[in-house]
Amino acid sequence: MIERLQGKILQKKSTEIIIDCNGVGFSAFISINSSEKLPDEGEEVTLYTMLITREESFELFGFYEIFERDVFKLLISISGIGPKSAMSILSSMSVAELQEKIILGDSISLQKLPGIGKKTAERIILELKDRIHKVSIPSEYEVRKEQNLIIREAISALITLGYSSALAEKLINKAISDFPDNNYSAEQLIKKALKLASS
Fold this sequence. Notes:
Blueprint: E1 4-12, E2 16-21, E3 24-29, H1 32-37, E4 44-53, E5 58-63, H2 66-76, H3 83-92, H4 95-104, H5 107-110, H6 118-128, H7 139-160, H8 165-176, H9 186-198
């Protein structure tokens, strides 16, 4: 089993990378999110990997961060989601966002992912809701996830007050700009948004 590669990047594309490890070139499929974080061609990199064996082929999948590989393993454990489909999901949404959507049971957001219909989205939530929270994501991602929850709560509150979803989102985004340190509560955003709406 190939768990990790360390070497020089020979070639990097949006969904594929070739790494020279002591004279041997390894090709691995990667997500767009991983590709954007990788250094330039010619530079050294460490890539976490998973080897998928089939009857007539071997496919290597690479991940810039180990927790992305953890979620990849969870996704391919679900019937109907293969490695390529799992990579498409991880290319379309960050691990932190995906974890959040699954824990919240947000089937509608999951259905927007490539190749994911209603039944598959519901299966992902059913099978992973109690497992994906165990995936450890660094604190910077946790902070972003917490901010997203606060923003969603504030937008929902404005919608409850009668504002359209588009206007509620616009007002909250404007309110956020008044907090350059990104340190805000849902209540603070709501108050600021209502003040903006009345001005």
